[in-house]
Amino acid sequence: MIAKIVYQVPVFGWMLKEAMQGPQTVKVLFLVNCALIWLLAIVTFGYPAIIIPALALVPVIFILLILITMG
């Protein structure tokens, strides 16, 4: 159900659906597009476009470190 809602997003949903169900080439192109979008955000907004994704990943890395140390 959540995937169906995400797939309804105009441009990103179409790309994500193709990346999930398409061939390997489409998956690589999806990752390239995500990297280029991030670089465009860095050029447009500057330093905050680098810092905000890093801050968003802090809880994920924290949970991974806890899982690693638990064994």
Describe, in short, the structure shown.
The chain is mostly helical. It has four helices and no strands. Helix content is 86%, strand content 0%.
Structure, explained:
It is built from 4 helices and no strands. The chain is mainly α and 71 residues long. The longest helix has 23 residues, at 48-70. The model has no long low-confidence stretch (mean pLDDT 90).
Strand-helix topology:
Layout: H1 2-7, H2 12-21, H3 24-45, H4 48-70
Helix content percent band: over 70%
Mean pLDDT: 90
What is the count of DSSP helices, taking H or I runs of 4+ residues? 4
Stretches with pLDDT under 50, minimum 5 residues: none
Structural class: mainly alpha
Task: Please supply descriptive tags for the structure shown above.
mainly alpha, extended, 71 residues
